[in-house]
Amino acid sequence: MKKLLLSALVLGSITAAQAINPENDNKSIDAVEVNADDKKDNPTIVGVAVGNENFSTLVAAVKAAGLVETLNGDGPFTVFAPTNDAFGKLPEGTVAGLLKPESKETLTAVLTYHVIAGEFRAADVVKAIQDNGGSFSITTVQGATLTASLEGDKVVLTDAKGGKSTVVLTDVEASNGVIHAIDTVVMP
Q1: Within-domain flag for 188
Q2: pTM (2 d.p.)
Q3: Are 70 and 5 in contact (CB under 8 A)?
Q4: Using the 8-state DSSP alphabet, how is residue 34 labeled?
Q5: Is 187 inside a domain boundary?
């Protein structure tokens, strides 16, 4: 499973580095390079999440899915990270069910749906939305797409099932990417 996930990450990196969707007139989000020297002083995405009590449910899920090593990797990654409150919006028992060993494959799919290969700052996402007529399709590491759009000055993600999540905090630095906190878990 790890080899499959790492292969998907490599493949996703190749396609997401361009972040181009044919429906978006070939306009793209520009990835930001990560400086290797920065990694010495900054924690990884997992380290940042572990250090923030608002992401404790996400951290538990990442551990249960066996994704700690992957998200501690070189990246760069952009993570749309659901807060504890976002997980709290799921129907009762959903989180507990996803954390069970027999749900690992489903949990992995849900979590990797929140990850984009490449580092994309909030300004890059907003520019891509504006350059593409008000919405932009983003291919996730999981393989499905999220659609980013603006509602007022907020970036909203629409998932494959039509669910919406608002970005509530942007550009949280990590040595291997960037985190944008979201208020609702998106589903593939």
Answers
A1: no
A2: 0.79
A3: yes
A4: P
A5: no
